[in-house]
Each structure stands twice: as C-alpha cells, then as structure tokens.
Design brief:
The structure holds 3 protein chains of 3 kinds.
Chain A: H1 2-29, H2 40-55, H3 70-92, H4 97-117, H5 119-122, H6 142-169, H7 171-181, H8 183-188, H9 193-219, H10 229-242, H11 247-271, H12 277-298
Chain B: E1 5-14, E2 23-31, E3 35-39, H1 46-53, E4 59-66, E5 69-70, E6 84-87, H2 99-107, H3 112-125, H4 127-131, H5 142-154, E7 160-164, H6 172-187, E8 191-195, H7 199-205, E9 208-213, E10 216-222, H8 223-227, H9 230-238
Parallel strand pairs in B: 3-8, 3-9, 6-7, 7-8
Antiparallel strand pairs in B: 1-2, 1-4, 4-5, 9-10
Helix pairs in contact in B: 2-3, 2-5
Chain C: H1 4-30, H2 37-59, H3 73-102, H4 107-129, E1 144-147, E2 150-152, H5 154-176, H6 178-188, H7 190-195, H8 200-225, H9 232-247, H10 252-273, H11 278-292
Antiparallel strand pairs in C: 1-2
Helix pairs in contact in C: 1-5, 1-6, 1-8, 1-9, 1-10, 2-3, 2-4, 2-8, 2-9, 3-4, 3-8, 5-6, 5-8, 6-8, 9-10, 9-11, 10-11
Classes of the chains: A mainly alpha, B alpha/beta, C mainly alpha.
Chain lengths: 319, 248, 302
C-alpha cells in the first residue's frame, strides 16, 4: 500500500517536473523579458512530437520511427521547438506585445490542427503510441522504475534550473530585464533589443519543447488533444501562481497547480458518479481561471514573485 | 469699475504621483477679462499647475474656485460645463477626425439648439477652418492646428480659457497671430490664463504675470513692471532662457 | 468554378465581421486584446437559447419557424434580450476584472487576465450545458438555388440581412452621433477627450455594452446557421483577431471588410485544403498582414 503511494508519488513528481520545466521556459519569456507567449501548448507539442517521431517504432503511413535513443529524441525536441520559435519570433517580435500574444495563440492552433489532420506527419487524431520510456528495462518493478524516472527528471530539472539561474544573474539576464523595464532606455545603451528578445523567446520555447518531450516519454503516448489551450492555460497558471520572474516560483507553482489539479481530479473520480465526471472536469478549469484572475488582481507577484526591480533608480514605467 | 475675481487658486499642491508634488503650494488669482500669464524656467511646474486646475493632474491640497464655485473636486470632463476650457500644449486636436467632427464633438456639451450656430460662429471667427472643414485634422499645418485647438475650446463659451504654451513650435509670425487672436478673444469677454516659455511675447499681451520656480510662487505683478524687473532678467536672460527657437 | 463558397464565405464573413467590430472597438478604446471576446459570442448564443426556451415555457407556445425560416419571432425577441444580457456580461467582466487592472496601467496583464477569464467563462458554459451541440431548430432547411451552382437557405439570407442592418447601424452611430464621435475621440486620445467634455468612463461602459451585444448577434448567426456549442466563440477568436487587425484596429468598416475577407478566404480554401485546415487560413492572413502592413487596411496608427 505504501509502495503504491510511493510509486504514484514518484510518477506525480515526474509529471510535475515536466510542467516545472515548461514553466521555467515560460519564465524566461515572461518573467525576464516581458513576452506574452499564448502558444505554450504548441511548442510543447512540437517538442513532444519531434522526440516521439525520433524515438518510437515506425508506423505505416507516417514518417519517423527511427527508434533512436531517448537523449537524441530530447535534443531533437529542443532543436525543433527552437526552429519554430525562431521563425515565429523573427516575424512578430518587432510588433507590440499583444500582437505577439495573438500570433503565438494562432501558431498553437495551427500546430494542433496539423497534428490532427496531417496523418503522414503526426499519426492524426490517434497520435503516436509506444513512445519509449526511460529505464524501460525496469518497468516490471513499478517502484524502482518510477524512482529512476524521478531521479532523471529531477536531474534534468535541476540542470535547467541552475543553468537558467546563472544565465539570469549574468550579463545576458540583466540586459533582458532592462529591456523588459524600459525598451527606450535599453536601446539607448546600444543593445539591439529585438535580438535579445528573440534569443529569450527561442530559449524559452526550446525549454518548453523539452518539457513537452519529457511528458511524452513519461506517459508513453501522445495525441493532439493533449495540446489544446488548456495546457497553455495550466502552465500559465503555474507561473502566475508561483510567481513570475522567479525560477523557484515557477517550480513551486508547477508543483502547487499540478497538485491541486491531480487532487481535484482524484476527488472527482472518487466522489462523483461517472455521468457527471466530464462536467466536473469543466469546473476544474473554471476554478483555475478564477484563480488566475484573482491572483492577477490581488497578488500579481504570485507566491514567490520577483522582488527586485532592475534598479531602484529607474523610474516606474507608466504605460 | 473693479473687476470681479474669476479664478482663485490657494496653496495648491499637485503632482502625478502622490508622494512627489511638482506644484508645492502655489496661489494665483485671475480677474474677469484679464489676460494672466504664468512664466518660469523649465521644470517650474507651470504646466502642472494649469493641468491641475483643469482636473488632469491630481491635487493633494489647496483650493480652486471658479466664479465662486469650488471646482477642485470636479473631474476633467465636467470642467467645460462649468466654464473652464483647457487647450493642451501637444496633441490638442483629434488628428484622426475631420475639422468638422472635432468641432461637433466639442459643441456637444451645449444644448441642441445652440450647436449649429455655435459651429458657424467658429467658422466665422476662423475662416481657414471653414475652408478645410472636411479635412482630417492631422493634415492641418501647425498654425491651423493651434487655431482648431483654440476653436475647440471656445466652442463651449467658457468663462475662462486656459492654454498651455500656445506658442510652442510656431514660427514668430504665427506666434504673433495666435497672440493677436487671444487679445481679440479677451475682448469678447473671455478671461484668459496662459502658461508660456516665450516670456517677451507673453508679457506683451498679458495684463499681469506670475513667475514660478521650483513649484512655488516667485514673482508677480503687472507685465510692464515685470518686464523691467531685475530678478526676471536673471531668471530668463542670465540662465539663457530668453526667446529661443524651440523644436516643434 | 463552383461559386457556393461565395455564399458560405459571405455568411461566415458577416458573422466574423460582427464579432470583429466588437474586438476592434474594445481594442482601440480599452487598448488591449480581449481574449474573452469569443466567450461573449458563445454566451450570447446560449443566452438566446435559454431565453427562447423561457418564452416558450411562459407562453406555452410551440416554437416553430415562421414562414420559410427555421426560427420564429420568439428567437428574434430572445435575441434582443440576449444582446442586452451579453452586453451586461461584458460590462460586468470589466467592472470585476479589467477596470481594476486598468488602473494599474499594465496592458499585457489585462490580456493575460482576459485569457484566464475566457477559460473560466467557457468551462462554466460547458459545465452547465455539457459539450453536446445544441440547435435552435431541428427543421431541415431547403436550399434555394440561385444559379451558377449556388444554393442558399432562407435562414442564411435572413442572417445576412440582419448582419448588414447591424453593420450599417453601427457605422452610422460611429460617424453621425455624439456617442460615436466620443468613442473615436477616446480611442485616439482619452485625455484630450476629457478636456473636450467627454465622460471617458461612460464611453468605456458603452463600448463594452456594444461589443457584447454585437458578439451576441454573431453568436446567434452562428448558432442558427450551424450549431451552438461551448467552443464556438473560442474557435472564432483567431479569425476575429485576424479580421480586426486586417481591417485596421479602430476602424469599424475595416473590421467588417476584414471579416468578409477572412470568411471568403476560409470558404474558398475548404475545397482546396480540406475542412480541417480552415483555421489555418485566418492565421496565414494574420501573418501576411503583420508582415506587410501591420496597421491594416484602414488603420492609421502604428
């Protein structure tokens, strides 16, 4: 019984970690650079599908299936999301912030459409199954398997976290925050603001793609319906609730929101009759939406929001 | 016959942000049918003063009375219904609307029967605008724009016309024209309060002037007296603040 | 060439245009992209269904169609009530959420909040009504041939006519009335507008009411000619934004023309790329506009 709980706990944490990584990627874009990416689900999909196509077994009527090692898959995920991000970013980053929001929103919709319709590429509505899971040889022993995966997920998360922390505290991070606070001032410092934002956008999307790939390998199969706006919404909720601008907040938010989500899902399936369970799932989304709006209203810094402004001497920006 | 006091400002403290007052306890008064000028070096708080009086900048202390009524708590959009019309320095016309629409918008605060005659009166006063009534206001020249901005304010038949640097960005010839216009407007019974950088020209048409510095009263008096004042010369000529070409 | 897509495109374009007018007004006056606008469309459709049901229950009348149309007077009356209710919903959302964020002056936070609100509103509808599609009428409509291989139903003609009336009405209001001029003024320069005597808060309230009402009309159009389901508005959001940006933010005629272009393009593309990729058409149009002329056809700013 305890073993079951531990096994479940480990699996829960692995999923939370993959969300955490997505939130970290989003934080590079929003928290550090002030870019509003409404297409998180799309980039997660790109990463997931890229990795799946590289590592899974071949299937008729569909490209890919090269059965490469998982590490290659994850690298491919990072590369693919980076390329897509570079394309989108090059077109839209010179425009106002809300045009970026609308465009990323659109790209996620198109990506999901491609996933549903282009069966030769993505396997269509049924998605891709039998995605190899890390430590597959251990699958017989549920606890060991999940703990091994947890160790891997923790390792990846820590690496990304430490890497980002160092990046953010270094010169690159300072320029990003300066650009976020006041583009005119930053431009006058001689930095090409648009190039820095593009870098932040691409880096963030690459990390989101990695998170998507990790999730794909943790669960073993993916389908287009996993990458609807609800996913974007969940990751945003995690970042906002945990605290935007703060990497620890991103991870904490991922844990908190995923915990809330899993708990409410579990309660729904335990307490409610099967007939209304689908409707109860909608209530979960209502609650998360209300939670986001409330946090934005009352405590926009989230649980662990960034306390530092770029400098106490820069005037507050009046928009 | 002594003129009645139209505008009284006492101990006004105002600023964009609560803890950072730009106007720190300024007092002025304007009598009916006067032209009063507010002068002072850059950053003295002149613009902020008139914007605060017009309801655009928050006030934290002081009194503002217009024709005996307390207008300190009035929101900006009620000012025109209470006799005060403000002409901002920049972005003072709606460039995306036609001249006619700019005027139609302004005159909407008057009762319906007065609207059409009100607009026609403006076209009589500003024949240039009549000719270009369907042109987008953004296509007007600098001088015509200023005329439109003033016409827009006059439309509501204000008791007090407040202007923020009406000469800004205009050639000397246009400045003469605008100021001549202001004199004519005063002669129709409208009181005028204006902020100016161009001290010489302003003192030429003003009856009285106040000089502000660092958000407080510094000097006041009749124009003629101030024009010869030694401190004025220091503030304006010593600091190189004399009439200068200002970029548009 | 089969010209059927023209009819379908005009209809789709008309309803996208109605929604886009609301988007362009709120975008230019409130200065943020409102992701919850799609939900006004959906709520409008469901509200009309609900009020129609209420009228039917209260009057005990059979809710059949009137004449060649599949819907009767009750639906149109319900629609008017629903337009008011949706306008109030939009206003309520502003009062609860957007107005308070507006005071802080950070536009992108409002966009974020609108994204969250859209999720909450849509899921609430899903909870109450389930995701099963609903219909205003089960009557099968006979398509009338118009020649050149084009067929149209009486419903479609009615919806088109109503859309035209609404658009003309909005255009006249915007250009010939005080409230319309006030809205243009606030959209260009709110400070100058106050100085000219415009009550900016009142204009903002009017904008929400109008935007909500027009969205409701679009929802009714879509609901009658297709179906009512929780994602109907959300699925229109991308075409709405594309149309508003294509037409130029702040331009009401632009939004309508943008809507027609998007609608016609989507309908024309279906025989070529299949129905699955319709939404991609709107996206491609959006990208094209942003690349070539971000200010749009009639936009004058930025």
């Amino acid at each position: 019984m305890i073993l079951d709980w531990l096994t479940y706990g480990a699996f829960f944490l692995v999923t939370a970690a993959s969300f955490g990584i997505m939130a970290l990627g989003l934080n590079v874009q929003w928290g550090q650079t002030g870019l509003f990416n409404v297409g998180v689900a799309g980039f997660a999909a790109v990463g997931a599908y890229a990795s799946a196509l590289l590592t899974a077994a071949p299937a008729t009527g569909r490209v890919g299936g090269y059965e490469l090692p998982i590490a290659i898959g994850w690298l491919g995920a990072v590369a693919a999301s980076g390329v897509v991000a570079a394309l989108i970013g090059a077109i839209t980053l010179r425009l106002r912030a809300d045009y970026l929001a609308i465009t990323t929103f659109g790209i996620a919709i198109v990506i999901q459409l491609v996933a549903v319709n282009a069966e030769w590429l993505s396997g269509g509505p049924f998605g891709i199954a039998f995605i190899p899971r890390p430590f597959a040889s251990l699958q017989e022993h549920a606890l060991t398997f999940n703990l091994a995966n947890l160790a891997l997920a923790s390792l990846v998360t820590c690496t990304v976290f430490i890497g980002l922390e160092r990046l953010m505290r270094g010169p690159w991070g300072r320029v990003l925050r300066a650009i976020r606070e006041d583009e005119a001032a930053a431009a006058s410092l001689g930095k090409n603001a648009r190039l820095y934002r593009l870098q932040a956008f691409v880096l963030g999307c690459m990390i989101v793609g990695l998170g998507g790939a990790m999730q794909a390998h943790a669960i073993g199969f993916i389908a287009p319906e996993n990458y609807l706006s609800a996913l974007t919404f969940q990751v945003w909720a995690m970042l906002i609730i945990g605290g935007a601008g703060n990497n620890r907040g991103a991870l904490l938010g991922a844990l908190a929101v995923w915990g809330l989500w899993s708990l409410s899902s579990a309660l729904v399936s335990m307490l409610l009759p099967a007939g209304i369970q689908a409707r109860a799932a909608s209530l979960q989304l209502v609650l998360i939406g209300v939670l986001i709006a409330t946090i934005l209203l009352l405590r926009p810094r989230g649980l662990l929001g960034e306390r530092l402004v770029v400098s106490r001497f820069l005037p507050q920006r009046k928009d | 016959m002594t003129a009645a006091v139209l505008l009284t400002v006492e101990g006004l403290v105002a600023g964009y942000e609560p803890g950072v007052p730009i106007v720190r306890g300024v007092s002025i008064h304007v009598d009916e049918r006067e032209i009063v000028v507010i002068l002072g070096p850059n950053g003295a708080g002149k613009s902020t003063l008139v914007k605060a009086v017009s309801g655009l900048v928050p006030k934290t202390a002081g009194r503002v009375m217009l024709a005996g009524a307390d207008i300190a708590q009035l929101p900006a959009h009620q000012m025109v219904r209470n006799g005060l019309a403000f002409v901002p320095q920049t972005e003072n016309v709606f460039t995306l609307m036609s001249v006619a629409d700019n005027l139609a918008l302004a005159v909407a605060v008057l009762p319906k029967p007065d609207r059409a005659p009100g607009i026609e009166a403006m076209y009589d006063l500003f024949p240039d605008l009549a000719v270009q009534r369907n042109l987008g206001a953004g296509r007007l020249s600098g001088g015509q724009r200023q005329m439109l901005a003033i016409a827009r304010a006059l439309m509501v038949k204000p008791k007090l016309l407040v202007l923020d640097e009406p000469s800004a960005g205009l050639s000397p010839k246009l400045v003469e024209l605008v100021f001549a216009r202001l004199l004519a407007i005063r002669d129709t019974g409208v009181t005028v309060l204006l902020v100016e950088q161009n001290a010489r020209a302003a003192l030429a048409i003003g009856d009285r002037a106040y000089v502000l510095a660092d958000g407080a009263n510094r000097l006041e008096g009749k124009s003629a007296d101030l024009a010869n004042d030694r401190i004025m010369a220091e503030l304006y000529l010593g600091a190189g603040q004399a009439v200068e070409a200002r970029p548009p | 060439m089969n010209l059927q897509f023209v009819v379908d495109g005009l209809l789709l374009g008309g309803l996208i245009g109605l929604g886009a007018i609301g988007v362009t007004l709120t975008y230019s006056i409130l200065r943020f992209a409102n992701f919850a606008h799609g939900e006004f469309i959906t709520w409008g459709a469901y509200a009309t269904l609900a009020v129609t049901g209420l009228i039917g229950w209260a009057t005990g009348q059979q809710l059949g169609g009137a004449g060649p149309f599949s819907v009767g007077w009750t639906v149109l009356a319900a629609g008017l009530v629903a337009m008011l209710l949706t306008g109030l919903l939009a206003l309520g959302l502003d009062t609860l959420l957007f107005a308070r964020l507006r005071a802080r002056g950070n536009a992108i936070i409002m966009v974020m909040a609108s994204f969250g609100a859209s999720m909450a509103l849509r899921s609430l509808l899903e909870f109450v009504f389930t995701s099963e599609p609903k219909y205003f009428s089960r009557d099968i409509q006979i398509a009338i041939p118009l020649g050149a291989g084009v067929r149209v139903t009486a419903d479609q003609l009615l919806m088109l006519a109503i859309a035209v009336v609404l658009v003309v009405a909005v255009h006249l209001i915007m250009t010939r009335t005080t409230i319309g001029r006030s809205m243009q003024a606030v959209s260009e320069n709110p400070h100058l507008a106050s100085v000219a005597g415009v009550d900016v808060d009142a204009v903002i309230r009017a904008t929400w009411l109008a935007g909500g009402a027009l969205a409701c009309a679009a929802g009714i159009m879509s609901g009658i000619t297709v179906q009512v389901r929780p994602f109907m508005g959300f699925d229109l959001l991308l075409p709405l934004f594309a149309a508003a940006i294509l037409g130029g933010i702040g331009s009401v005629p632009g939004a309508m023309i943008g809507g027609l272009i998007v609608g016609l393009a989507e309908s024309a593309a279906v025989p070529l790329v299949g129905g699955g990729f319709r939404a991609a058409v709107a996206f491609l149009l959006l990208i094209a506009v942003l690349l070539v002329k971000p200010a749009g056809l009639f936009g004058m700013r930025e």
